[in-house]
Amino acid sequence: MQDEYDVVFIDAAKGKYPFFLKEALRMLKQNGIIFADNILYKGYVLSDYNKHKQRTAVRNLREYLKEVNENPNLKTQVLEVGDGLAISQKIN
Q1: Distances 86 to 28, 38, 51, 78 between C-alpha atoms, Å
Q2: CB 57: neighbour CB atoms within 10 A?
Q3: pLDDT computed for residue 49 by the predictor
Q4: Vertex 25 angle, CA 24 and 27, to 5°
Q5: Is the pLDDT of residue 4 over 90?
Q6: Do residues 24 and 73 make contact, with C-beta atoms less than 8 angstroms apart?
Q7: pLDDT above 70 coverage of the chain, percent
Q8: Where are the alpha helices (DSSP H) in 1-92?
Q9: Which among 12, 34, 57, 81 is least buried, having the fewest CB atoms inside 10 angstroms?
Q10: What is the CATH number of the domain that holds 49?
């Protein structure tokens, strides 16, 4: 997939969100938007959750949030609605 897009919607395997972010950034046009659904994953991402069953998914969702918040080319808001929605705009 070599095309560029105005909007990318991520709703996939929670443990692979950092990978999907990398690909979304590659395909996103200037000022494009990335929507990442279920980013708070049952509230586990914002808690001290560390049970074995969901550990990888929670760790990678936390990594996704860290990356979108620290990336100087992105402006990000996280909405605590439903299971969480991260909205990131590519600004550079």
Answers
A1: 16, 8, 24, 4
A2: 20
A3: 66
A4: 65
A5: yes
A6: no
A7: 95
A8: 17-27, 55-70
A9: 81
A10: 3.40.50.150
pLDDT at position 91 over 70: yes
**Burial environment of residue 30 by CB neighbours within 10 A (0 to 12, 13 to 18, 19 or more):** exposed
The answer on pLDDT for 52 being more than 80 is no
Tally of domains in the chain: 1
Global pTM value: 0.89
In angstroms, rounded to a whole number, what is the distance separating the alpha carbons of residues 19 and 37? 15
Torsion sign, CA atoms 19, 80, 9, 27:
negative
Is residue 47 classed as helix, strand or coil in its secondary structure? Answer: coil
Range of the domain at 62: 5-90
Number of residues in the chain:
92
Sign of CA dihedral 75, 79, 80, 86: negative
pLDDT surpasses 90 at 56? no
Amino acid letter, residue 41: Y
pLDDT digits (tens, 9 = 90+) for 16-39: 999 999 999 999 999 999 999 999
